[in-house]
Amino acid sequence: MKTEFIILKEAALTNNCPECYSNDGMVLSFKQEKLKSKLIVKTKKEIIESIECGKCETKIYPGQWTIDIERVYDYHKKTIKSKPSSVKFTGLFYTIIALILVLIGFGYIYLFQPELLGLH
Asked: Model-level pTM?
């Protein structure tokens, strides 16, 4: 399965980075995971949230957040709207199901009504 992410929201933060103390380059992002295969596309319900500093290229974990970062995080979290979790089937899935049904139909006719196929 191939994993993709749906970006629900990305916001630039002006708070100081707890690692390099820079006040520019921090990005708060909210993403939702989408798994794709040849037969199905599944969107997960969970929201993945992260804060990264672009200047020192560090991921900022919740234990490192300051009170100001928590306030900004809480504000942005209230504004996001997640996509509902779902499972969608691809065209290949429906094609395989149709072929199976056609084969079952021909098998039934062949076994129980061969005169319809001119085999009697």
From this structure: 0.74
Question: With contact defined as beta carbons under 8 Å apart, do 51 and 62 qualify?
Answer: no
Of 6, 4, 1, 2, nearest to 84 by C-alpha is 6
List, in order, residues 6 or more apart from 37 with CB less than 8 Å away: 1, 2
State the DSSP H helix or E strand holding residue 74, giving kind and residue range, or none if neither. Answer: helix 67-79
Nearest CA-CA partner of 49 in 36, 63, 60, 38: 60
Quick one: pLDDT at residue 43?
A: 93
Which residue carries 């990264």 as its tokens?
A: 52
CA distance linking residue 39 with residue 60, whole number of Å: 37
